[in-house]
Design brief:
Layout (H helix, E strand, L loop, with lengths): L31 E11 L2 E12 L2 E10 L4 E7 L1 H4 L3 E8 L2 E8 L4 E2 L5 E3 L2 E6 L2 E7 L2 H8 L2 E2 L5 E11 L2 E6 L8 E8 L7 E6 L2 E6 L7 E8 L2 E8 L1 H5 L5 E8 L3 H7 L26 E9 L2
Parallel strand pairs: 10-11, 12-20
Antiparallel strand pairs: 1-2, 1-12, 2-3, 3-4, 5-6, 6-9, 7-8, 9-10, 13-14, 14-15, 15-16, 17-18, 18-19, 19-20
């Protein structure tokens, strides 16, 4: 494990501007949402498919957006709570005059504390009788429902952004690269009421990173080892010490590509998220594929 880098160091990394983690004036409560991005082959070209799961007072819903590799949106569909509550359905949209059918079945889905289903579901995108993207564990049911053929090129899970909530401990399920093992990820922060605040990251109850004197190292980076793969970890908890009561901490876990390249290539529809002015790139890993990034926005429950 590499030593943590203080935000005052030469290679210090700022994960987010001091203002970027605060909620907008029009929305004074953080949104409970999870955004997953997949790289797929559609109509002979690579594209990005973004699925966003969210939950609010009106209920649960999700949206699907298809964009090219330049992040130009080609189409988008929103499934609102009224339709989501039926747990099963389909919609279609068009890309370059070609029809794309979306099927989902959440009747048996199990959810954790977040809006994203964990198991007992499927969601599939079909174009010209080919399953472009299929997520969930009910794959046999999906192929039976859609009569689609498996895609010749598998979709790659390249990015996930998730909002998590807690007082001192933040827990979520996480994988650190496409098709990787799912782990229990815990972030614990003793930031208040103690003389020397510290930050700890645990994977499956094993402490893999510890940052002492967090009041001086509220931004930084380190490297951990998960499943034999080096994972670069970046954190920005400036708002927990100096921000507003609605401020959040930001944590990024990055494999393969340089963090700067991955971060600047993402688009953000959430107004509370701004691009990361990264001052450092990491050497590329030997992992195949475009790499993977997991970004967690940790909100304090008052």
């Amino acid at each position: 494990m590499r030593n943590s880098t203080s935000c005052f160091g030469e290679n210090g990394v700022q994960v987010a501007d001091a203002s970027c983690s605060t909620v907008s004036a029009s929305n004074k409560s953080p949104q409970n949402l999870v955004t997953c991005i997949y790289q797929c082959k559609l109509l002979g070209k690579s594209c990005l498919i973004t699925i966003t799961w969210s939950k609010n007072l009106m209920g649960q819903c999700f949206s699907i957006e298809i964009a090219n590799l330049s992040h130009q949106s080609l189409c988008r569909v929103d499934v609102k709570p009224s339709l989501f509550s039926k747990r099963k359905g389909s919609k279609f949209l068009e890309v370059n005059s070609s029809r794309i059918d979306i099927y989902w079945d959440l009747c048996l889905a199990k959810f954790g504390s977040g809006p994203e289903p964990l198991e007992g579901f499927y969601m599939g995108l079909v174009c010209k009788e080919e399953m472009v993207l299929l997520i969930g564990d009910l794959k046999k049911e999906a192929f039976k429902k859609t009569n689609a053929n498996p895609s010749l090129s598998n979709a790659i899970f390249i990015s996930k952004r998730e909002h998590i909530f807690g007082k001192r401990v933040y827990v979520t399920k996480a994988r650190f690269f496409d098709n990787g093992q799912i782990h229990d990820l815990t972030i614990e922060c003793n930031a208040f009421g103690v003389e020397n605040p510290c930050l700890m990251v645990r994977v499956d109850s094993k402490t893999v990173m510890k940052v002492k004197h967090l009041q001086w190292k509220f931004r930084g980076n380190d490297t951990i080892l998960v499943d034999g793969v080096h994972v670069d970890v970046f954190w920005d908890v400036h708002n927990w010490f100096f921000g507003t009561s609605y401020g959040n901490g930001v944590f990024m876990f990055q494999t393969c590509l340089s963090a700067e390249k991955m971060w600047t290539s993402q688009t953000f529809s959430d107004p509370t998220i701004l691009p990361w002015p990264c001052s450092r790139s990491f050497k590329e890993s030997k992992l195949p594929g475009p790499g993977f990034s997991l970004t967690l926005y940790a909100w304090k429950n008052e």
